[in-house]
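User: Hey, quick favor. My workstation is busy. Could you predict this chain's structure for me?
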Amino acid sequence: MTESEDIRLIRDSVRRFVGTHMPREAARKWDKGNIFPRDVYAELGKMGLMGLTVPAEYGGQGVDIPATMAVIEELAKRSSAVTCPYIMAACYAGMNLVESGSETQKRALLPKVAKGELLFAYGLSEPNVGGDLAMVETSARREGNRILLSGTKRWCTGAQIADYVFCLARTGPKEDRYKNLTIFLVPPKSQGVAIRPLDHLGIRGVETNDAIFDDVEIGDDAILGGAQMWNQGWKQLAGRALEVEKLELSAVALGLAEAAIADAIDYAETRVQFGKPIGAHQAIRHTIADVKTKVLAMRLMLTHAANLVQDRKPSALESSMTKLFCCEGASEITLTCQRVMGAYGLSDLMDMERYVRDAISLPIVGGSSNMQKNNIANRLKLAE
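Assistant: No problem, here it is.
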């Protein structure tokens, strides 16, 4: 598949960066220890890649969604410990500030995003709230000139390294659901904020946390978009940045699938059994043919959806389809490739077991596969 020269050059530069700064041995250490390699991330920031979601007037490279997806894909092949912080900067911070920030917030924060100096952690899900975000229980109330925020956010990836938690809170009666929601940018080191780690199966290298808010005092300047966006959080959430979130996970899925296939092919060509490489056996040959076909379909879907978002064309249907297909595809492909490698595919001597752990998480996180199917059915206006 032909890419633009600009994206090809970006992809090549990220591949060189991965080879130099993210060797397999280091990536395995980050995964096992759940370690964020801040020094490696800082080197990535010097390349200006976080600026691919930031307009030039704010110090970025200009918004380029397809190029951003290429960076995510290449990083995901090697380590979520660097991929996740990149997403926290370019997508969580960059996209949301560009789409919904006030002019004051954009001028103060976007240049930092472009330099790789600013990270957002998403504070959306809660212990009792998963996909139904309109029913969040975290609340904010006004007391004079103060806003007091209380509640608990769960699966808040990277909160311990973030500069702000992107926090969705209820600011009116819950019966009104979508009407009384506001997004706040809350520094996790604020008084009254507690960050508690949660361990989990895959996507390691950046901790996932509970973020607990106990009457955290903030002002109107903490409201995403400024004071006029009080109770306007839902329309900020359900916009272009949400479509990019589905695509960034699809790009992670594509990277994991590509890496798994490359390792499986290498193993099949060098592992000799019964007098010949196992890749010469028809069962392995057909398996590789199947997964290569599926990963091409994943790439075509992601490219199509990313171009729609880039061009500001309607993309809610296509982004949900892409998230569904790519994330389910990565889970299937990595498990298939793991079987090609037999017992070695289960061993931490190889990277395959990480690909599997990361990939099987993707149909769950960032809007589950069932949620995507609901989105697709709703966009198709199917009878309920």
